[in-house]
Amino acid sequence: MAYYDRSSTGDTLARGLGWFSIGLGVAELMAGRSIARWMGMEDKTNLIRAYGVREITAGVGLLALGDPKPWIWGRIAGDAVDMATLAAGMEDNPRAGNARIAFGAVVAATALDIVCAQKLHQEEAAYRRQPLPDYSGRSGFPRPAEAMRGAASDAPIAEDMRTPKILQFQPSGPA
Amino acid sequence: MRALVWHGANDIRCDTVADPEIEHPRDAIVKVTTCAICGSDLHLHDHFMPGMEKGDIVGHEFMGEVVDVGTEAKGALKVGERVVIPFTIICGECDQCKRGNFSVCERSNRNKAMADKIFGHTTAGLFGYTHLTGGYAGGQAEYVRVPFADRTHVKIPDGLTDEQVLFLGDIFPTGWQAAAQCDIQPTDTVAIWGCGPVGQMTIRSAVLLGAKQVIAIDRVPERLAMAQAGGATTINFDEESVVERLNELTGGKGPEKCIDAVGMEAHATATLDSMMDRAKQALMLESDRAHVLREMMYVCRPAGTLSIPGVYGGLIDKIPFGMAMNKGLTFRMGQTHVNRWTDDLLRRIQEGQIDPSFVITHTVPLDQGPEMYKTFRDKRDGCIKVVLKP
């Protein structure tokens, strides 16, 4: 079972990164052209919008899809793609300075993502070190469960709770 | 008095609030000796149920001692008597109550107009469970006002501990009704999704009612171990395909009876539909996650029955109703008609046929309740059922 604790430090950080992802994604989607122009990479407008969709998906994943670890690793992979795109876009770019600022921001976000992933994995490892409680003796019955099968078949169950005869599974063989 | 109070999503606190008083001649005041956190309380904690207001006292599984009785309830209750209070408040006089359909009592919801608008027709008032069901103060508190107390109670004889009888107020009859409304036959395989407290009670009920085979589905190892102890064959959906395993266990025919003891917060599995549900729920495009319902419709044997004790709050999406229609499935669902079952179940506890306290894994003072909500929600520390002592 994948472990995650929605009250933990790692999860809180993951949720923060989830909201950041959604905010960044919406900005990239809605203002892709302006962002591309600011970085001197107008030819990458559609790519930046696509990255926006990726960010929103990661954000929803982190906030709402249970175990945040796969989504954080997804963000780290996305960060690598972002850095590669920015690095490639800096050549012969009159606005390379802006692209460098963006690159620095991605590096900072990546560092946070890595810290978050490490924290989440540490929390899972700590949980797994704890011994599992043993509930194998908790039947609630005075005798083995097999011996209790049908012990309440005399229970008073009114007709409205019964399946109408016509809808019941009939015994096999000709009617 | 001290009580657990809802302040918003993920924010339940132990506050000091005003003591309850008799407001109507049919009321009683109960001093709570033991109460519990129910799985459906988590829907309030996580704020998936609409209709909560800041300051609402939560909790609907509780019992205690009668300390004050209104003039019209004196014939039925006396100060000092020990009672379990059913989570459904019942008048005992309306047409539905007379039919035993207590969870849809027509008179106990004091916010009937609101419920009529939302549900089409009102259902019963409930303790500590949104203003849609009356906005009544709940039982995770030192004292509770019990409306319609002359009918809304189960008297507890001496010789039984609180822990043995507490669950008569909700999860035991809920599990029992879930199994009973399947009309279990000795040839039936009953598959139960969810091994939380209601699932555990449902497993025992299905065994007692004589199912040939009971199969329990979950992913939490300690819950599966407890299910196995109760007589179930288990499926860990993290490790194996539920559909394939159920087919294997039923000779390819599918279980005749399927029970959803999970409800609106089904865990996000690796399946596309459950991931879509989580995303849609987060974006407020649907209120409930219906993975279990879809899976039950798919695996159930044609002409079988689906029983749904799991709580749903609003809208679900992408339900394969054509599949259900063509397979001729019967749906049984609803909140529990608690008082319909309690006499029989109390007798079974007295006779030692079952001891529902097996499910309790944590007992703490009331003021640790807020922390235990999180432990229970996150299934930490082997938590299956939390009992609180005010």
Automatic annotation (TrEMBL), chain A:
<feature type="transmembrane region" description="Helical">
    <location>
        <begin position="12"/>
        <end position="31"/>
    </location>
</feature>
<feature type="region of interest" description="Disordered">
    <location>
        <begin position="131"/>
        <end position="175"/>
    </location>
</feature>
<keyword id="KW-0472">Membrane</keyword>
<protein>
    <recommendedName>
        <fullName>Cyclase dehydrase</fullName>
    </recommendedName>
</protein>
<keyword id="KW-1133">Transmembrane helix</keyword>
<keyword id="KW-0812">Transmembrane</keyword>
Automatic annotation (TrEMBL), chain B:
<dbReference type="Pfam" id="PF08240">
    <property type="entry name" value="ADH_N"/>
</dbReference>
<dbReference type="InterPro" id="IPR013149">
    <property type="entry name" value="ADH-like_C"/>
</dbReference>
<dbReference type="InterPro" id="IPR011032">
    <property type="entry name" value="GroES-like_sf"/>
</dbReference>
<keyword id="KW-0862">Zinc</keyword>
<protein>
    <submittedName>
        <fullName>Threonine dehydrogenase-like Zn-dependent dehydrogenase</fullName>
    </submittedName>
</protein>
<dbReference type="InterPro" id="IPR013154">
    <property type="entry name" value="ADH-like_N"/>
</dbReference>
<feature type="domain" description="Alcohol dehydrogenase-like C-terminal">
    <location>
        <begin position="197"/>
        <end position="277"/>
    </location>
</feature>
<comment type="similarity">
    <text>Belongs to the zinc-containing alcohol dehydrogenase family.</text>
</comment>
<keyword id="KW-0479">Metal-binding</keyword>
<keyword id="KW-0560">Oxidoreductase</keyword>
<dbReference type="InterPro" id="IPR036291">
    <property type="entry name" value="NAD(P)-bd_dom_sf"/>
</dbReference>
<dbReference type="Pfam" id="PF00107">
    <property type="entry name" value="ADH_zinc_N"/>
</dbReference>
<feature type="domain" description="Alcohol dehydrogenase-like N-terminal">
    <location>
        <begin position="25"/>
        <end position="158"/>
    </location>
</feature>
<dbReference type="InterPro" id="IPR002328">
    <property type="entry name" value="ADH_Zn_CS"/>
</dbReference>
